[in-house]
Amino acid sequence: MDELFIPVIAGTTRERRRSIYAAKLVEQIGNNQPGIRTQLVDPKDFTFPGEGDGKEAKDPSYTEITKNADGFFIVTPEYNHSFPGTLKRMLDSELENYKHKPVALAGVSSGDWGGVRAIQSLALVTRRLGMVDTFADMQFPRSKELFNENGKIQDSAINDRVQKAWDELIWMTKVMKWGRENLTRTS
Ligand SMILES: Cc1cc2nc3c(=O)[nH]c(=O)nc-3n(C[C@H](O)[C@H](O)[C@H](O)COP(=O)(O)O)c2cc1C
């Protein structure tokens, strides 16, 4: 099978954001997976004018990334028990490019629950976008203690959980790519 492209999408542009450390860790572990190419998709690098998914509301480089992606890994912070508007705006700018592709979801919070409520809210949206969620969610709780000021993870057990999330996502990505390429839809 050809190399699979699975970008890691970060969820916020906030100054001093800590979820970017989690996204970078996920990207770094993703880069160690055989046959996988990944890329950190940082919302700071894109501009989405207006609203919606019309041509005038897209960022062409985000369009290109989503078109080429075989799957996605989204790392979202929890803001007021949901995920940030920035992430929603970015996801909303495309539709067809997500269809029949798997997505792994990770949450990051300063509280004890590791962004589970953000993941639950996001799952409603990814489902509507035609993605298929994996069941191996990742949580990064207590973000202020979990990463030091240089962004280094302080609990090495997390690495194994990120690896398991990648294992599941890669398996789903292979299955769904095969399906997209080999099974025709009757409707
Ligand atoms: C607007 C806002 C709302 C937040 N709401 C919650 C929350 O509901 N639950 C929680 O555990 N942490 C909450 N936090 C803390 C973030 O989860 C924490 O900053 C974490 O590191 C992830 O966000 P960050 O990448 O912006 O740092 C909130 C932070 C902001 C900026």
Overview of this structure, please?
It is a single chain. It is built from six helices and eight strands, in the order ββαββαβαβαββαα. It has helices at 19-31, 60-68, 85-92, 116-128, 143-146, 157-182, and strands at 4-5, 8-10, 36-37, 40-41, 72-77, 102-108, 132-133, 138-140. The strands form two sheets. Strands 2, 4, 5, 6, 7 and 8 form a six-stranded parallel sheet that branches. Strand 5 (72-77), helix 3 and strand 6 form a beta-alpha-beta unit. Flavin mononucleotide is lined by residues 12, 14, 17-19, 77-81, 108-111, 143.
Bound molecules: flavin mononucleotide
Give the assembly state of these chains. Answer: single chain
Distance between the termini: 28 Å
Low-confidence stretches: none
Estimated helix fraction:
25-40%
Largest sheet: 6 strands, parallel
Mind telling me which CATH architecture this is?
Answer: 3-Layer(aba) Sandwich
What is the approximate shape? globular
For the record, the CATH class is: Alpha Beta
Q: How many strand segments?
A: 8
Structural class: alpha/beta
CATH topology: Rossmann fold
Alpha carbon gyration radius = 16 Å
Q: CATH superfamily, please?
A: Flavodoxin domain
Number of helices: 6
Mean pLDDT: 96
Number of domains: 1
Run of helices and strands: EEHEEHEHEHEEHH
Beta content: 5-15%
Question: What's the structural blueprint in terms of helices and strands?
Answer:
Blueprint: E1 4-5, E2 8-10, H1 19-31, E3 36-37, E4 40-41, H2 60-68, E5 72-77, H3 85-92, E6 102-108, H4 116-128, E7 132-133, E8 138-140, H5 143-146, H6 157-182
Parallel strand pairs: 1-3, 2-4, 2-5, 5-6, 6-7, 6-8
Bound molecules: flavin mononucleotide (FMN).
